[in-house]
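Practice problem: Branched-chain amino acid transport system substrate-binding protein
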Amino acid sequence: MSRISVPVSILFSTTGAYAALGREAVDGAMAAIAEINGDQESSVRLEPKLSDPGGSAERYGLMAEAAVRDEGCRHIIGAITSWSRKEILPVVERAGALLWYAFPYEGYEASDSVIYLGACPNQHLLPLFEHVMPKVGPRPLIVGSNYIWGWEVSRIARELTEAAGGQVVADRYMPLGSTQVDHLITEIRQKRPDFILSNLVGQSAAAFLAAYDALRRDDPDFGPEHCPVVACNLCETDLAVIEPAARTGHITTSVYFHGVDSADNADFKAKMAQRHGPDRRLNATFVSAYAAVTTLAQTIADVGSDLPDAVRHAATARLFRTPLGPLKIDPRTQHAALRPHLAVSDEAGAFNPFQSTERPVVADPFLVQTHMRRHDDSPPNPPPQGSSKTHLTGRPPLKVIK
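Answer key — structure tokens:
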């Protein structure tokens, strides 16, 4: 069988402020490539072109341009932060290439040059707040890395909080990669919020959780049952570098956890155990990059070409079987329908799922269909047509995992 040989840019930071996340993404992408290239029945062979921007957002654009110009890459699997995605975006738009972006982001974007396989706010922040606010209260304090992810998730969180009759008691930012968190802990101690929403990334997130643990040991009112840290992007790699006691009781949402009970996930874990050993605990960063590569390869095989326009149209016209579950990409927005899960962390640094939607949630990147209701109100009248503020409707309810 003749095989199509396709150069693919793998563009993640394996050094720098969020290097651990980048290494997981590269591991996931390379696991998929090894599997595809080792399958003699596959009509596609991928040639990975690895680049490490070192956590510098500006270098993402330069390296993406070099991959397209010098390596002949029409497809880029890459970027974790929104800052780096924004640097790649004009490159792929000019070149007519495709970026496969597989990580949670703040929404309010749709480009013909991007396939969005990561969750947007109606698939991460809204389910998280819908669970947390009725249980612990409507007064969050928000901390975030000082770039578009932190700003925009904070803005949406504020709108959700106010719609629920609550109040954001403070909204604070840190430079990406900073570990200077003492001032945040001091303000949390003073203002005593109901919970903390963390939009911190990489080593900033780990430093904050370590410092917060010292606070909750000193004052039990900040324990996880009273004032938990919640997040849409907290990952096992963030917990791995802190003490076991500091790892526990944090609530996060994701489209993948190692402990998700599904046939697709069971098959995938067994396959990865053969490659990485039985002790490798998989996380969303690894699995999302893996799913991006396999989705791309399956689409190229369908089309018989890596031409971006043909691949884009074919990718939005079929269903993919992935470790995330059945994956369908909306042709209107090029965002994937995804199944959100909620999980709580333990001392081992693992996240244990406790709620999931029964079926995938269609992405609503501009939040025009998905809305939040006040907890103390019955549903009000429908909003005027074209209004962006309504209630949490049109989304499958979260189901408690027994």
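Discussion: The longest strand covers residues 4-11. Students who identified this feature from the tokens alone can consider the problem solved.
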